[in-house]
Inverse folding.
């Protein structure tokens, strides 16, 4: 096991609200680490709305999801947050009052005085195709991600999808697979044109197969795939890429009170039923809750005031404005 | 107001009134058609509001845009009559529209 990472606050989720929490905490000298299952920051803004307009950020008449993430990253730069991307927080254990031990699926362990759950609609996880009897094959013959390419060496591989994930893995795994078949529902691909051309060249040269259709059934036994019904294609490994969907994930197992997959909080500090554990943004609920980015920003500011008490129990907090406080401006690197 | 009929995979039928200018997805959410998930809220970025337009209505509703067609790649059991309901605007011409909703939207 790796060394335990000690931090003031661990933020679960690097969407807009998790990012802004870094700012509010930073003004109060509170250091933060962030963990996000996506391989990039921005959460839904990055995954669902990178190019879509947002019209209701106060003072910003128009911005895209990508633009907002970028702006927030610039805003929090002075506070030097540490990001752990492509990782999911799996377990949370209360070991003090308050002190938490938090672990990720990549084996990292944090010891933190407070935890802020800013997990939005949950963690983005791969969509599972609705193929009857797919479950027994998952993680033995059916994989939703490639962690080690070598695991696919000499396999009869079936990749499903038409986006960049499907095409990139097709190009990367074709040289080491015994035989690779790409299945897509139509003969047009939304992935990068260069990848599409390379894939088509491999097909033309007879080095891989392309089939237009949808996978409707699987054959095999003991978790080992032998065929799947795009006309009885013989395969032993399948990689479906249908994009991501939001699932609550392990948060449900942390011993928190939940209401309809949301975390009830108080509206003074957005603290959960567990002292020192906060929930802000779309994942929380309280009377009058609106799932708006601006609400999450407000929640982050109030959360930081309370978190300060846990991180610096002996320090008195004096409220200051960034406009007039030299102290705050020094922290922002502008004074 | 135009009426829209949602037939869910288990046969449950919802006949509801739709506001002109709203979408078939929004109308579903307003009327608790549970098989429409609409994770992204109507941005054509998640493919969890898939419907199969009834054969008789398919030509009237029309085909998906290029952007929607790409997004359909992330849906399951896509048919020639499949659409993302957030991309179908309610008009008077759609009064009586029948759409079939799938059992599974990917989550």
């Amino acid at each position: 096991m790796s060394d335990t990472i000690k931090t003031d606050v661990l933020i679960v989720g690097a969407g807009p609200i998790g990012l802004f929490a870094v700012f509010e905490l930073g003004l109060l000298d509170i250091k933060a680490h962030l963990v996000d299952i996506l391989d990039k920051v921005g959460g839904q803004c990055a995954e669902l709305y990178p190019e879509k307009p947002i019209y209701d950020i106060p003072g910003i008449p128009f911005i895209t999801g990508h633009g907002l993430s970028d702006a927030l990253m610039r805003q929090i730069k002075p506070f030097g947050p540490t990001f752990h991307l492509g990782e999911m927080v799996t377990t949370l254990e209360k070991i003090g009052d308050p002190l938490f031990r938090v672990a990720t699926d990549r084996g990292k362990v944090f010891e933190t005085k407070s935890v802020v759950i800013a997990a939005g609609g949950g963690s983005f996880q791969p969509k599972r195709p609705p193929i009857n009897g797919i479950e027994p094959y998952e993680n033995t013959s059916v994989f939703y991600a490639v962690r080690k390419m070598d695991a696919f060496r000499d396999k009869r591989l079936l990749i499903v999808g038409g986006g960049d994930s499907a095409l990139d893995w097709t190009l990367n795994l074709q040289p080491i697979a015994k035989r690779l078949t790409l299945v897509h529902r139509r003969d047009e691909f939304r992935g990068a044109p260069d990848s599409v051309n390379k894939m088509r060249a491999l097909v033309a040269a007879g080095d891989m197969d392309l089939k237009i259709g949808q996978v409707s059934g699987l054959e095999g036994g003991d978790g080992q795939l032998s065929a799947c019904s795009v006309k009885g294609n013989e395969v032993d490994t399948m990689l479906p890429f249908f994009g991501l969907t939001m699932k609550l994930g392990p948060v449900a197992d942390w011993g928190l009170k939940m209401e309809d997959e949301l975390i009830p909080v108080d509206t003074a500090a957005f603290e959960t039923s567990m002292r020192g554990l906060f929930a802000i943004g779309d994942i929380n609920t309280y009377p009058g809750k609106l799932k708006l980015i601006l609400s999450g920003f407000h929640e982050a500011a109030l959360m930081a005031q309370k978190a300060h008490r846990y991180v610096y129990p002996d320090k008195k907090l004096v409220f200051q404005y960034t406009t007039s406080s030299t102290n705050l401006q020094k922290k922002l690197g502008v004074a | 107001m135009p009426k829209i009929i949602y037939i869910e995979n288990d046969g449950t039928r919802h006949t509801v009134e739709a506001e002109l200018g709203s979408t078939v997805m929004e109308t579903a959410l307003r009327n608790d058609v549970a098989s429409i998930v609409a994770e992204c809220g109507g941005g054509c970025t998640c493919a969890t509001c898939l419907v199969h337009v009834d054969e008789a209505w398919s030509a009237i509703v029309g085909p998906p845009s290029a952007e929607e067609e790409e997004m359909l790649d992330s849906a399951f059991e896509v048919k020639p009559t499949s659409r993302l309901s957030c991309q179908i605007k309610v008009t008077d011409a759609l009064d009586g529209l029948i759409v079939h909703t799938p059992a599974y939207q990917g989550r």
